[in-house]
UniProtKB/TrEMBL annotation, chain B:
Keyword Iron: yes
The protein's Enzyme Commission number: 7.1.1.9
Species for this entry: Deinococcus phoenicis
GO biological process terms held by the UniProt record: aerobic respiration; electron transport coupled proton transport; respiratory electron transport chain
Protein name as catalogued: cytochrome-c oxidase
């Protein structure tokens, strides 16, 4: 059975948000709200730290104004008419008139004018938002069932290939970031509402799209086109860093080579299993599907694991922080049981059904799995390049991290 | 009145269940067919509604495990597909349309009553076909939009049956639409011009037109997906240069207009309710008709607004954005005119009025949010989010479905002779109203707060997600309660005796002159022939004109026939075979395998497929060999064309649409350089020979038609025979060419070849269909069913054959000559 109940552990009283309805009314000013909602992360298209959202907001103000006028006007006309002319208040014989041409003309012309104005506003806003600026930071985005890879085509790694990170995208603040988005299987979509609009990841095409923000922080992103069983578990984080910090990260990432484990350590045993698997028990090598920068592991079927130890999330954003640490063992052991449709093989030696087909898992002992986990945790960027270090975390696990639900 | 009708109802109650079912299987009565559509649609609404509640229960709180992953996707897909294809489209267009269109036009039936029986059963069988998927691997889980390439992903279940059901339902739907259009053009009561038709008839006419023009897009999308699943033929596969986005173009070319198919009939119902309940003429009847036609036109030009986030060229996006915003204008006119109709009236505040007023208010919100989605930068943000979910439920569930309810409350006395309970009706209305707001208004906020649609779960800790989702689930339960009240209301009403008078609301259109419920022959009277306005009953009361009684015994109706039902049943078996079996054993993941390596269910279904073909032909020929009327009757129609020709002429629009969509897709792939012909390609000379054969066959059948017209029956039969021979020759050459070309290279590796087999193969299928069509009048002629007054299906078959011929000329141009 699938056990996707990844946060039952946090029982107890729900973190209360009594005035949430009142707050929901103030969505337009997301930036102000973000500071006010404590342990919750606010996803909002009204996050005005993004130039995209600001531009969209000024376009929408007109539409919102017209909407309010039309809504009030028409609903007043409707309810006034019904109230005035209902049978129990009006027993006059109805006048049998067939229409009013002047009124009809007005009711056509006025909406046409409004529509023309909105069209012009839309085109004007598109002209500002859609072209990719020359100075944009370039990132390659690859979506696959059910994870993301973020590569930096302008940042070749010393160890070969480009700097690439799985499921966590690091960008600089105050600069447009041009994402070149594609998919390796079905259609996905990259959407981080606080940073701008979405764009589909379509196999066979590369579409470029921009996001940006002025405020450093971690932002939630989600896949936004139905892509299979774990569509809901195809999440990602965007970490916006101030430019200096971002450059530090990128330089360290370019120079990064996976640390060599000390001989005889758990990490060293994990390294061997990672690279070779265990052919005797049918356990496939992790390296066949995953890349780790600076090692022979160069697989492309799964997300890049080069900076795994630095990452906060696991399973494409299914778990974060301490919870991710706890889940790692179970994840390696039997990922499809935790994430529906996950294509990562199981390592518990059991037969299991994956999307209707029976698969036979290879076998790794719990100790061996712990060794692999230890190796994965050792894949850390140098501390000065740890992009999570100074980021104000406003996410579900922020409080859990302190052990204080 | 009561006394007069009471014996009828007890007689009806005494009939056994089998008698009733048999009656509905064989009936050609438009009213029974309409009731069948309404009944099945309501059942479908119940199923899909319960599925919706299940979805909401899963999302009530974060990290629930009630419906996980693919299970959730299957429930989601069934919910949407059933709601759209088996509730909201059919109940308005075909349910109310069938029941009330002939009544409002003052005629006794639709143009082609037996085609109507065939269409309703095709509709029912396609619903059953989807359900058979549950014990054949599972329901479809790809969303009702079945986006490529998710639809051909090896992990998906139920996609082929979904495709087949969509196509079968589409055929039924097109036949129904063509039937309505032919009825309106050919069969109005004398004196009623098009501009004096009730507004509901205009709504049905414009909806039928929209279906006929656009449904080809959905059929093309489903067909190409199906062929990729079963043969590896593809126009979308990026691996061989296809574009997945082309699928979306095909799909939305229909599925956006479908939104208006789910709106226009209800706007017609709303206008009828407004006029009757306010006791006034419509405000701006002509403007309302122009708005309907304007919506038809503009709605065909907005489909790409579902694809803004795909990243189409900006010029495309802007063009479709403008059209999207423009469509708000005629829609707004409808709303203003509904209010204008109520203005100055003496409004009867009964349940139908409440549904109408509720609709106007809710639709106003839905319309405004729709305009906001047209503004592209905003759409980039919220498309595919819960904002969109809220918007289209706003338009459909607590928009047009409210008028479906209004229609039921308004016409219930006419349909059943009984009233629905007003008190229960108000409970139903307010539970639906409050339930809808609670369910869907929070979803607007969820979209603005970044929640994507089609998520089976969400984590704790996103601002307001938990609270808003919880409210939404409470709303869904409220809707469920409202639905139960509604069903109870209908049930208790049907237990009561028939008491309704002919015209309980004081309506102004002709259906109110029939008995409640109407007799099989609809009217025991004839109408005056003066129609000063669209409200004849009001005008006649003023002018003192009276109905002329007619002795019902002199009225002849089409006789019941089991053959349309059996023909539809054969197509159901064929659909079952095509879905779960096939002529080979091919899967996208496993490739071509030996046939008997397949599972038992695949082999079984393949056998069903083979058996269904002779069954289908048998039932079809028996149908063609059975006369529509027991006695010779004089058909009178308003145009010089008979009903068969007229129905076919409208139906052909849909064939043009289907080939038009596919050919446009191919031309795009060719021009953009994706589809390059292989070095070895089919020979132009064989195609030229085939062109000669087909063009001559068109002349031959035209001559045959003339011969029939002039009573030269031997020459006529010979002409049909030669046409059949020429068609067979064409098929032989084409099969030879296909075998050769399929052998020379692999269509799974070449996009051009794939397009060739899809489009030319579809044309080949049309040759088979057209040939069968010609075989029918030939059979009728041989068995002596045809004479100077009985054309059988000759004119329709010949028209169809000409179409197949013209399509071939296009195909020669784009596949052989180019």
């Amino acid at each position: 059975m699938l056990n996707t109940n990844h946060s039952r552990r946090r029982g107890g009283p729900r973190r209360g948000l009594p005035p949430q309805l009142a707050r929901a009314g103030l969505l337009g000013v997301g930036a102000a709200l973000l500071t006010g909602c404590g342990s919750q992360q606010l996803l909002s298209i009204g996050d005005l730290s993004s130039a995209y959202n600001r531009e969209m907001f000024w376009m929408s103000v007109w539409a919102i104004a017209f909407s309010i006028v039309i809504f009030i006007g028409v609903s007043y006309a409707l309810f006034y008419t019904v109230r005035k002319f209902r049978e129990d208040r009006n027993d006059a014989e109805p006048e049998q008139f067939h229409g009013n041409n002047r009124l009809e003309t007005i009711l056509v012309v006025v909406p046409v004018l409004i529509v023309m104005l909105l069209s012009v506003l839309t085109v004007r806003t598109m002209a500002r938002l859609n072209p990719t600026p020359q100075n944009a930071v370039k990132v390659d985005v690859l979506g696959k069932q059910f994870w993301w890879n973020f590569g930096y085509p302008a940042a070749p790694a010393a160890a070969g290939g480009n700097v690439t990170n799985g499921n966590e995208l690091v960008i600089p603040t105050r600069s447009p970031v041009a994402l070149t988005i594609t998919s390796g299987d079905v259609i996905h979509a990259f959407w981080a509402p606080n940073l701008g609009g979405q764009r589909d990841a379509t196999p066979g095409t590369h579409k470029t799209w921009q996001i940006d923000t002025d405020r450093a922080g971690a932002y939630q992103g989600n896949c936004n086109v139905l892509c299979g069983a774990s569509h809901a578990n195809m999440r990602f984080k965007v970490i916006a860093l101030d430019p200096e910090q971002y450059n530090t990260f990128l330089q360290a990432a370019q120079a990064y080579r996976a640390p060599e484990p000390a001989p005889g350590s758990a990490e060293a045993r994990g390294y061997t299993l990672f690279m070779q698997g265990n052919p005797a028990t049918g356990a496939l090598a992790c390296a066949a599907c995953h890349r780790v920068q600076g090692t022979p592991a160069a697989g492309a079927a799964g997300p890049d694991l080069s900076f795994f130890g630095t990452r906060r999330t696991l399973g494409a954003g299914m778990w974060e922080g301490e919870r991710a640490q706890e889940m790692l063992h179970g994840w390696i052991k039997h990922s499809p049981a935790l994430k529906p449709g996950s294509l990562m093989p199981a390592y518990d030696g059991q037969e299991y059904r994956l999307n209707g087909k029976v698969q036979k898992a290879g076998l790794l002992t719990d100790a061996e799995i712990d060794d692999i986990a230890a190796y994965l945790r050792s894949l850390r960027l140098p501390e000065e390049a740890n992009y999570w270090r100074d980021v104000p975390v406003t996410s579900q696990n922020a409080s859990a991290q302190g052990g204080n639900p | 009145m009561t006394v007069q009708h009471a014996p009828q109802s007890t007689a009806a109650a005494r009939r056994g269940a089998w008698e009733v079912i048999k009656d509905y299987m064989m009936t050609t009565d438009h009213k029974k067919i309409g009731l069948l559509y309404i009944f099945v649609s309501i059942i479908a609404f119940g199923i899909a509604g319960v599925l919706a509640v299940a979805l909401r229960l899963q999302l009530a709180l974060p990290d629930q495990t009630f419906l996980v992953g693919q299970t959730y996707n299957q429930v989601l897909t069934l919910h949407a597909a059933i709601m759209i294809f088996f509730f909201l489209i059919p109940i308005g267009l075909f349910g109310f349309g069938n029941f009330f269109l002939p009544l409002q036009l003052g005629v006794r039936d639709v143009a082609l009553p037996r085609v109507n029986t065939f269409a309703v059963w095709l509709f029912i069988f396609s619903l059953i076909l989807v359900i058979t998927g549950l014990w054949n691997g599972g329901a479809p889980g790809v969303g009702w939009t079945f986006y490529y390439p998710l639809s051909v992903d090896g992990n998906q279940t139920g996609t082929s049956v979904f495709m087949v059901a969509v196509i079968l339902n589409g055929i039924g739907s097109l036949l129904g639409s063509a039937n309505f259009a032919a009825t309106i053009i050919n069969l109005r009561t004398p004196g009623m011009s098009l501009w004096k038709m009730p507004i509901f008839c205009w709504a049905i006419f414009s909806t039928s037109l929209l279906q006929l023009i656009s449904l080809g897009g959905l059929t093309a999308a489903a067909l190409v997906t199906f062929l990729e699943l079963k043969l590896g033929l593809s126009m979308f596969n990026p691996g061989i240069g296809g574009t997945p986005i082309l699928f979306q173009q095909f799909f939305w070319f229909y599925s956006h207009p479908a939104v208006y198919v789910m709106l226009l009939p209800y706007l017609g119902i709303g206008a009828e309710i407004a006029s009757t309940m306010a006791r006034k003429p419509l405000f701006g009847y002509r403007v309302m008709v122009y708005s309907l036609l304007g919506i038809v036109l503009v709605s065909l030009l907005v489909w790409a607004h579902h694809m803004f986030a795909v990243g189409l060229p900006e010029s495309w996006q802007i063009a479709f954005m403008v059209a999207t915003l423009v469509v708000a204008v005629p829609t707004g006119v409808k709303i203003f005119n509904l209010i204008g109709t109520l203005w100055g009236g003496r409004i009867i505040m009964k349940t139908p009025t409440y549904w109408l007023v509720g609709f106007i208010f809710n639709f106003l919100i839905g319309g405004i949010t729709g305009v906001s989605l047209g503004m592209i930068p905003f759409d980039y943000q919220v498309t595919m989010s819960y904002y969109v979910v809220a918007h289209f439920h706003n338009v459909m569930m607590f928009g047009t479905a409210f008028l479906a309810m209004g229609g039921i409350y308004y016409w219930w006395p006419k349909m059943t002779g009984r009233f629905l309970n007003e008190r229960l009706g108000m409970w139903h209305f307010w539970l639906f109203m409050v339930g809808s707001w609670m369910t869907f208004l929070p979803q607007y906020l969820l979209g603005l707060l970044g929640m994507p649609r089609r998520y089976y779960t969400y984590p704790e800790g996103n601002f307001a997600w938990t609270e808003l989702n919880f409210i939404s689930t409470l709303g869904a339960l409220t809707l469920l309660a409202g639905g139960i009240v509604w069903v109870w209301n209908m049930y208790q009403s049907l237990q009561k005796p028939i008491t309704a008078s002919n015209n309980p609301w004081g309506g102004f259109t002709l259906e109110w002159t029939a008995a409640s419920p109407p007799a099989a022959y609809n009217f025991a009277h004839e109408f005056p022939t003066s129609f000063p306005t669209e409200r004849p009953l009001y005008d006649w009361e003023k002018s003192g004109e009276k109905l002329t009684p007619v002795d019902p015994r002199t009225i002849h109706l089409p006789v019941d026939s089991i053959w349309p039902f059996l023909t539809a049943l054969a197509l159901f078996f064929m659909g079952y075979g095509l879905s779960f079996g096939w002529f080979t054993n091919y899967t996208p993941a496993g490739g071509l395998q030996p046939f008997f390596n397949a599972g038992a269910s695949h082999v079984f279904a393949s056998i069903v497929l083979y058996l269904s073909i002779p069954f289908f032909l048998w039932a079809l020929f028996k149908w063609a060999g059975t006369r529509e009327y027991a006695v010779p009757v004089e058909h009178h129609h308003l145009t010089k064309y008979d009903n068969g020709f007229m129905g076919m002429a409208w139906f052909i629009i849909s064939e043009v649409g289907l080939f038009g969509v596919l050919i446009a897709g191919y031309v795009y792939l060719r021009i953009s350089g994706h589809a390059e012909p292989p070095a070895l390609r089919p020979n132009i000379w064989l195609a030229a020979l085939n062109t000669l054969i087909l063009v001559s066959s068109s002349f031959v059948i035209h001559k045959a038609e003339q011969d029939h017209h002039h009573g030269r029956y031997t020459w006529f039969r010979l002409g049909l025979f030669i046409t059949l021979i020429l068609g067979a020759l064409f098929m032989i050459f084409q099969v030879y060419e296909f075998a050769l070309f399929g052998h020379e290279s692999d269509w799974k590796q070449n996009l051009w070849q794939s397009c060739f087999f899809i489009i030319v193969g579809l044309h080949g299928l049309h040759i088979l269909i057209g040939g069968t069509g010609i075989a029918l009048p030939y059979y009728q002629a041989l068995t002596g069913k045809m004479d100077k007054y009985n054309h059988g299906s000759l004119t329709a078959a010949s028209l169809y054959w000409h179409l197949v011929d013209v399509v071939w000329l296009f195909i020669v141009a784009i596949f052989y000559a180019w």
